Amino acid sequence: MRLGFHYHIPAQIKDGWIYLPGYLGRFIDSLAARVDHLDLFLHQPSPHEAQFMDYPIRADNAYLYGLGPHNSVPHRLLHSGSITAPVRRQRDQLDALLIRGPSPLLPAVARAAGNLPIALLLVGDYLAGVDDLPQPRWRKELIRAFSWWNARQQEQVAANSLTFVNSRKLYTQLQQKVPNLVETRTTTLSEADFFVRADTCQQRPIHLLYTGRMDRAKGLLEILQALELLVEDGEDVVLDLVGMAEKGDPILDELQDKAASAGLSDRVKYHGYHTIGPDLFRYYQQADIYILASLASEGFPRTIWEAMAHGLPVVATHVGSIPDFIGSAAELVAPGSSEDLAAGVRRLLNDPELRKERIALGLQLARSCTFEAQVPQMIAAIEKWVRK
User: Fold this and answer.
1) Whether residue 362 sits in one domain with residue 236
2) Distant-in-sequence contacts of 108-116, Cβ < 8 A, 24+ apart
3) Is 67 found in the same domain as 10?
4) For 8-65, how does the pLDDT look when each residue is reduced to its tens digit (9 = 90+)?
């Protein structure tokens, strides 16, 4: 099968290799391993984004068709006709087109595909995070209006496509509107990534770990407040933060200031962005508890699978598909409550049997959410859709 792929995350050619951010590059490699030919319709990164193009595609059957610079969303929408020209030129050579969304140009790319069979992979909801954006109110309302329009357009495309979703909430929303709907698990893991251990929390200080975008919607301020509560109770705990700084969000400066005011500067460390693979995974291996305090709805955070694959017990908020996908394999708490986050950490610290049970269940779940387990199912469904 010759498959096309589009998403708004950019890619670039360096020294003859296609480079992407690692989490997407791993997925692309896993797709390429199961098709004859993979055509990538992706933008070129902005200067700010170039530093995150850190993963070279290993597959020799993946080809990049550039969609021009990764400019502002209004610019891309205004020039969508010319930007999507490579899709129109290549569509007769493809058997199907996979579009990951939500994405600003998803409707335009779908139109450019003409009669080509389309599959969507929906991994989130633009509308869910608008209120948490660090933007003036007028700008938020413009973003909300665009997000609503994009979601309606996306639904129209989905109604005539094979549609994968990694969110139980999205599945429920679309169930009556999309006849060909499949719930899936998106991941960054391969079977070779696992770090198996029976227990953590054997030495002090206890290392709490958060990985992901440095985004206030991830509940970073609540995590810091939970750390303060734990330290006040006499717990010897530190917080490690690993991930990409979010452009336009001063959350890291706020965390630093609040940590200093609370006397916690030596207990909070930001380690910067690290490439997925051994460079990132060593932080999971050195940690004791993984903590995620998302305030808004999630599809499903890939970092939870990464934490569980590295033998970490997890404390997470009860949002999005987190409770649907992991259930009793983690300590789930209410969003927005630093007291509940601290209580979840205490339960894991004070109950070794509970902690070991959570670790074992997490490893079992993560093994079912590798590329080897998930991507063949996706490709088989697309092949069936093409033959339909």
Assistant:
1) yes
2) 108/77, 108/80, 108/81, 108/83, 108/84, 109/6, 109/41, 109/84, 110/157, 110/161, 111/84, 112/84, 112/85, 112/87, 112/88, 113/4, 113/87, 114/88, 116/4, 116/91
3) yes
4) 999 999 999 999 999 999 999 999 999 999 999 999 999 989 999 999 999 999 999 9
